[in-house]
Amino acid sequence: MGFTHVLLHGHRRAGLAVAALALPGLLMASAASATASPVAATAVAGTARMTAATTQAGKPTTVQPSSSPGARTGAAIPAKPRGLRENAPVSTWTVTLTANPNLLWPTQYSTLTATASTDVGPTPYYLRIYDRTAGDYVVTCATGTTCSTPVTQPGQSTHYYVAVVSYASTGYPPSGEQAVSGDVGVVWHGVNLTLAASPTTVPVGAASTLTATTSQNIGLSPFWIEIFDVTTGTNVALCGSGTTCRATVSQGAATTQEYIAYLSDNSTVYPPPGVQETSLLSFITWSNLGWGVSLSAPAGTFGSETVTATANGEVGPSPYYIEIFNETGTRLATCGFGSTCSMPFTPSHGGSKLIAFISGYSTAFPPSGTVAASNVITSYLRIIR
User: Fold this and answer.
1) Cα separation of 188 and 107, whole Å?
2) Do residue 55 and residue 194 come from a single domain?
3) Is 272:263 a contact under the CB 8 Å cutoff?
4) Distance between CA atoms of 65 and 220, rounded to whole angstroms?
5) Best CA proximity match to 47, nearest among 294, 229, 309, 239
6) What digits encode the pLDDT tens for the residues 107-162?
7) pLDDT tens per residue across span 251-297
């Protein structure tokens, strides 16, 4: 069913007021149950039942290493020690810089170490490390041949650092520069995080499984995979290691619940602190009316594509519509007749996420009167090279 049906809302036949809410072929008991559950009741959540993942112990503790003795962090300049006799001018200076480790999780520390070829103490120069990415000095040492300091970032980031032997100027490049190292990069990496529900539409009281998946094991990270029921603000799963985290959820009344996964600090507060990654929303609908809907589109396209939502029955004789939304909650299509609803769509290069519902005629997200939700699909606009 194409976009031509989008405007048919005002022309639905008057018999809808007495149309059966359930699909043709359902048992009389199911039809009676459907009649007893008006559309308004689908927005009232029943008592949730869940099986949460077991909390994992033994997460690594982040400890901040020390800087070199006498070093000053940031833009602060340490005093030169008194009584040192200045050496003869050095004709050639060299300086190197290392980072250990240079690939780590956010909030963890990397130690930067600058090494000069000569002790800067008996000279007018300082051994310094500069963050090219942030545009700030991170540490300055007035004596010795080495200068080290820990650095960290709160989130996913890549920073490039350089070491210099120079005067204690505030700008960069500094005045009196005698030597400069090559750039050293430190990567605070993230992970991909997805959340899927299966099945997405179940009878009232039945169970559905939520699965959050990361692209790498989080066991050595300071973070946790957490799954929340957005509708109630309740934590339903917490996992500290591995790449998957599952929760089994159920509702005792007709409803549609939203769920989301985070990679974050360990917390039952919604949303949790220290969020590093956030999944897209997933929806699960509990309904005894027997409706179901799926959504399909090409995984990638070089232009426009066709997105199709398919219901397990004809929506024409019912008060329901097939509706398609994007990940930001904008309704893209609605169809009031047939069992399919198709639309032309051009995804983004970064990937567009879409979901379909069988529901009342609604622009809310999720739409009011939802009786079925589809899987979330992702489609990409490919680049022609």
Assistant:
1) 8
2) yes
3) no
4) 18
5) 229
6) 999 999 999 999 999 999 999 999 999 999 999 999 999 999 999 999 999 999 99
7) 999 999 999 999 999 999 999 999 999 999 999 999 999 999 999 98
DSSP-assigned letter for residue 34: H
**And the tokens for 57?**
């112990």
What CATH number is attached to the domain comprising 247? 2.60.40.10
Which of 3-7, 37-41, 294-298, 309-313 has the lowest average pLDDT?
Answer: 37-41
**Given phi > 0 = left and psi -120 to 50 = alpha, else beta, which region is 375?**
beta
Number of domains in the chain: 3
pTM of the model: 0.79
Q: Give the C-alpha separation, 63 to 109, whole Å.
A: 8
**What is each CA distance from 69 to 32, 72, 73, in whole angstroms?**
79, 9, 11
How far is C-alpha 295 from the chain's CA centre? 22
What number of other Cβ atoms are within 10 A of residue 351's Cβ? 13
Phi-psi region of 200 (alpha: psi -120 to 50; beta: other; left: phi over 0): alpha
CA separation for the pair 193, 156 (Å, rounded)? 13
Q: Which pLDDT tens digit goes with each residue over 222-231?
A: 999 999 999 9
Which string of DSSP letters, residue by residue, matches 83-119?
TPPPPPPPS---EEEEEESSEE-TT--EEEEEEESS-
Q: Around Cβ 151, how many Cβ atoms within 10 Å?
A: 20
| Separation of alpha carbons 235 and 247, rounded Å | 10
Domain membership of residue 158 (yes or no) is: yes
pLDDT at 218 over 90: yes
Domain that holds residue 319: 1-37+289-385
Residue 350, pLDDT > 70, answer yes
**162 touches 97 (CB < 8 A):** yes
